[in-house]
Design a protein that fits this description.
alpha/beta
Length: about 325
Amino acid sequence: MTPPEFWSNPPNRPGWQARLLAPATLLWRLGANIRAARITPTQAPVPVLCIGNLTAGGTGKTPLVAALMERLSESGVPAHLVSKGYGGRITGPHLVDPTEDRAKDVGDEPLMLAARGLVWVAKDRVAGARAAAEAGAKLILLDDGFQNPALAKDAAILTVDAGAGFGNGRLIPAGPLREPVASGLKRADLAVLIGPEAARQQALAAWPALGAAVPAELVPIPTGLPLTDTDVIAFAGIGRPEKFFDTLRQMGARLAETHPFPDHHAYGPAIIRRLIARARSSDAMLVTTEKDAVRLPPDLRAEVMTVLVRLEPADWAPIDALLDRLLDGP
């Protein structure tokens, strides 16, 4: 899904479309409340840390999950990730094998993250959590599911894209919000505000409630092939492709062309071959994101450079304290 443009309007100017759809947001909220009232959350055998968001679309959830997996691995903590595997056809619970599974089977994000640790795909999150615990997990990272009441969460971290904030501040379908900002932030233990300093300051000005959020940035991981003063053709099928294009500009690349695709877009050989041909004819480098790379036809991946990024919080202390609390128990 490509979010409608009016979702990005300022909160004080939500747009006539948002006002027209306002009654429908009541139905969205009513449905969520009824669902929550009918379900008794199931407690997992081990602590569950949910990494979620309040809006539809990309907010930096996957980079935070990757950073947490790496940090816990360095600490020797057996943490497993449980994901619904959006876009994959396997229902699970299934332990992702990065050497055998494909994105069409398990989803692009689980396949990408499986290079960093143990990842379970399960459409039934409760079943996935049980499978992870039985396999030896001492902590479960739940990818998304903040608004899903089926599995009890012992703690939650919300990710917020500083560039997008909470859009026009309206609930779906009038805006991008899955639930009101105030209630969502109150239910979470921490929020992480992701973006450059200037974008974070703008987000804080528009949404003062984010004042307690942990600031973080996405930083490119150096490779042996720098992009400074290099002509590139870039494509991305992520929540906000423009973020990736901005990262390339910050790396000093000259963007000859940019091609945004919908999040989780399934790339066929024809479109990739066309992009390869355009790059060759322009004497440019064809580049994409790590998440997109796992969705490329295997025989064409070598023709596309993958740009890696990592999430760097300004201060790990609040996150580490939350992890310690979960691992130490009551």
